[in-house]
Specification:
A hairpin with a 6-residue loop joins strand 4 and strand 5. The chain has a five-stranded antiparallel beta sheet. The chain has 151 residues and is of the alpha+beta class. The protein is elongated and about 50 Å long. The protein has a single domain, classed as Alpha-Beta Plaits, CATH 3.30.70.640. The two termini are 30 Å apart.
């Protein structure tokens, strides 16, 4: 692990996002809450938060962080904006905040990825062709490098 003992303790925040492309019929099940496994976005939200909290157990050499805040939010898209032609998409965002000596980018990326994997798991019986894509850091702040924002 990288030695962060000499770094200053600062408030650190990160936001990551990603897509899962799926059939419009699958999105309709998610919206209506009628998926066989239940509340897809509710389960995905909890899974993403749990994963963000466990990031250091999943990613070798990643520092353990006590998260002060973690949220998972979703945008439902009926085509375009990240969805492949003829499909719909769910865009997920994971926002994390901590006070510490190292950034929270990995926690945000892990949270959004597991949230999207949970959508896949809960809907795979009706749509095995779902595709996760564009998992990326949107922004981060805190520490010596300060603020960074995508594009």
């Amino acid at each position: 692990m990288v030695d962060v003992s000499a770094k200053d303790i600062t408030v650190r925040e990160a936001c990551a996002s990603g897509f899962i492309s799926l059939k419009t019929e699958t999105l309709a099940l998610i919206k209506s809450g009628t998926a066989a496994k239940g509340d897809v976005l509710g389960a995905a939200r909890i899974a993403g938060i749990m994963a963000a909290k466990k990031t250091s157990s999943l990613i070798p050499l990643c520092h353990t962080l006590a998260l002060d805040k973690c949220s998972i939010d979703f945008e439902l898209q009926d085509g375009g904006n990240g969805a492949k032609a003829g499909t719909a998409a769910v865009k997920a965002f994971c926002r994390v905040k901590t006070t510490g000596k190292t950034g929270a980018e990995m926690e945000a990326l892990t949270g959004v990825t597991v949230a999207l994997l949970t959508v896949y798991d809960m809907c795979k019986a009706v749509d095995r062709a779902m595709t996760l894509s564009e998992i990326q850091l949107e922004e981060k702040s805190g520490g010596k490098s300060g603020i960074w924002k995508r594009g």
